Amino acid sequence: MIAYKTTGIVDMELVSLPQDWEKQTRFFPVIECIEKIPCNPCSFSCPKGAISVIGDITNIPQIDFERCNGCSICVGKCPGLAIFLVNPNFSENKGAVILPYEFRPLPEKGSIVRLYDREGKEIGEGMIEAIRTSKAFENTPLVTVSMEKDLVMCARHIRFD
Amino acid sequence: MSEEYNIVIVGAGPAGLAAATTASKYTNKILIVDENIKPGGQLSKQTHKFFGSKNHYASVRGVNICNILLDGLSKEKVCFRPETSAIGFYKPDTLIIQDKEGLHKIKGNKFIFATGAIENMVSFENNDLPGVYGAGAMQTLMNLYGVKPAEKVLMLGAGNIGLIVSYQLMQAGVEIMGVVEASPFIGGYHVHAAKLRRMGVPILTSHTVKGVYGDGKVEKAIIHKLGGGFEPLHGTEKTIEIDTLCLAVGLTPSVELLHQAGCNIKFIKELSGYVSVHDDMMETNIPGVFVAGDASGVEEASAAMLEGNMAGLKAAYDIEGFNRSVFLNEKEIVEFELKSLRTGPFCERAQAGKKRLMVEER
Ligand SMILES: Cc1cc2nc3c(=O)[nH]c(=O)nc-3n(C[C@H](O)[C@H](O)[C@H](O)COP(=O)(O)OP(=O)(O)OC[C@H]3O[C@@H](n4cnc5c(N)ncnc54)[C@H](O)[C@@H]3O)c2cc1C
């Protein structure tokens, strides 16, 4: 049996990433949705047609990284909050992640937050670069947080005081 | 004196509302009764974005799906009576309902029972201690009435409901001490488990609750590990301080009315309990009596709506006898979507259950 069924932690080998993802200089989606569940809003959310659920609704979403323009709508629409946008080279020495954050209060732009990995372990600090709320995101606030480059594939939750 | 309707629907959850939506395209004089104050069934308590089919409003928050369905219903054709319980059905055409004024007889041509499901209970020491809650009650308190229902919760059950309600409790500022699951695997979707894990909530598979203890109320729970045959492993007990144990250990279809009405009831494990036998258009062995949604086997809102569409379509067709190709075309679309929905490891079970139901019937 696959480990995530007991741990709740995604097996990153099952997640598709662009080739040479570390060299990317723009945001690309990391879709941490690896099970055949009956769900398809992501495929309808993308204005560029970059995400598709082909055939049965239980098939796993496929992503065409070339078409993605980083608009973030899929991050807001995904009912599983399982899509993150990652930019490994957000600035010269920082990477950044856009993550869904459905808690109150929201962090403030420019503030420092603690970063957590998929197991809820604290892994470092990040800075809030932007917070966006919109009906297009189904009112799920999207937080852009910058961090050390080597944390972008690990940081999946934030906390602050 | 009794009122007369073409179609009487019991239950205003997604299945009942979808049945009314489809039926009202072809016929009128439709009544929906629901014992709750508000329509929507489970939908009205769900603040999260629904997973499921985009055609059935997935990605929209449950409570908003409910409003979309309601807004789509024609007031001239569909009458809704809240705080009204259906308490008995008498063949061939009489439903007894109860509201604040008392008992009433309702006459109908077709009946659709979309009564949903009820929560299961489990046995453990002191499971009647105040502070032991069903997940539905916790949701009603926090999402309908705006009451923070607890401070420190242990969740029993790592199916989708346990995982989603844990997340909603955290949004309300409640601390989740852990999710305990007897099976060796997380039963709910990985994506819902992942939301909790990244917030540091442990999910303890192969564990269960031995009991809850406290002076007149829950103050702590003792959990222990289970072996391969679900036997408690001695010496693995752990104490967790909590004020509430929340139960999310499955649902059972609500078939009491169908049973009383004289429908053929069968135990089908894959559909979560006793269900009423029905054909491919949701009609039971009693002509003119239909079932739809969780009441016909516990699944999800998209499936409940499709079953509601199906029952509403057939009921309206039998009354109005409209164009047959329109009827067949709509039936085919619903069948196709249902079939697609019931693929994959999570939904095959329901598919197998529905198959058994129909084969056993023959
Ligand atoms: C926490 C939680 C999260 C969920 N998340 C999702 C999700 O993300 N996606 C998804 O697809 N599904 C989800 N579901 C499942 C979904 O909500 C149900 O499958 C769906 O609501 C079933 O619809 P229904 O109409 O059959 O029953 P219900 O929604 O249960 O409605 C039944 C209605 O019948 C009424 N009723 C019952 N008996 C009587 C009577 N005798 N007289 C009058 N009225 C009566 C009840 O008051 C109720 O309003 C979730 C469920 C829960 C509990």
Automatic annotation (TrEMBL), chain A:
Keywords of the record: Iron, Iron-sulfur, Metal-binding
Keyword Iron: yes
Single GO MF annotation: iron-sulfur cluster binding
Highest taxon of the lineage: Bacteria
Domain 4Fe-4S ferredoxin-type positions: 23-56, 59-88
Pfam family, one: Fer4
Gene3D superfamilies: 3.30.70.20
Leader sequence segment: none
Protein name: 4Fe-4S ferredoxin
